[in-house]
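Lab notebook, design round three. We kept the backbone fixed and only want residue identities now. Task for the bench partner: fill in a sequence for the structure below.
Input structure tokens:
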């Protein structure tokens, strides 16, 4: 029952996030965005970079059938013959064909892999941890991680659109809006996660390509300074 309630709350939270207005511009200094660094010992230093420029892809309004793999492929792994503009797709639909090109060219497309994930340098020294991602002022966690690392299932600015299909399925996800979010990292002394010894909570920012000219004072907070989206 608790799991069902959590999934319902998560879906509701994601719905409100998607309806939330994006800011007209983002000033990282004004928003209190800053790199966090803390030393726990000679070889144990945590550094958290609070700027993500999310990879954003072309998208499909339905799954695309791969005739070679005989399977439905992820929305952003596209068959070029299935991709078209909204205008062309609409014309096909008017003709009664809604399967000719289910994929769309994304005006907000960006996928150079730079600053594309939430990086915690030094987290390998603190293998027992919990990481929560949430919206400021909201107690609902939109992403939860146990024993977070910088590889594998990392936070890349995506949330599930339907948690009943598998919370972390990439084909069942969408990009969060540009704006300010919060993280909470809890470090534990034991692998059973029973004895916490520190909690780090702060703000971070997600910037998509349409904010290329509408952000300021963010480049110096990013891990990779050569990001073309950041000012």
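Proposed sequence:
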């Amino acid at each position: 029952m608790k799991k069902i309630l959590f999934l319902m709350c998560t879906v509701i939270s994601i719905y409100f996030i998607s309806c939330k207005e994006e800011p007209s511009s983002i000033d990282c200094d004004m928003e209190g965005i800053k790199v966090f660094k803390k030393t726990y010992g000679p070889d144990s230093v945590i550094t958290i970079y609070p700027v993500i420029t999310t990879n954003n892809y072309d998208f499909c309004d339905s799954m695309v059938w791969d005739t070679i793999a005989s399977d439905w492929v992820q929305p952003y792994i596209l068959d070029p013959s299935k991709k078209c503009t909204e205008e062309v797709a609409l014309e096909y639909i008017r003709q009664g064909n809604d399967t000719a090109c289910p994929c769309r060219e994304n005006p907000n497309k960006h996928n150079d892999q730079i600053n594309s994930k939430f990086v915690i340098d030094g987290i390998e020294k603190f293998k027992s941890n919990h990481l929560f991602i949430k919206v400021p002022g909201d107690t609902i966690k939109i992403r939860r991680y146990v024993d977070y690392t910088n590889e594998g299932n990392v936070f890349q600015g995506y949330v599930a659109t339907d948690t009943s299909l598998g919370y972390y399925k990439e084909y069942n996800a969408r990009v969060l809006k540009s704006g300010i979010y919060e993280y909470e990292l809890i470090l534990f002394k034991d692998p059973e996660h029973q004895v916490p010894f520190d909690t780090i909570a702060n703000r971070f920012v997600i910037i998509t390509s349409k904010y290329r000219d509408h952000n300021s004072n963010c480049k110096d907070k990013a891990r990779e300074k050569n990001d073309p989206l950041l000012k």
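Keep this in mind before ordering anything: The two ends are 46 Å apart (CA to CA).
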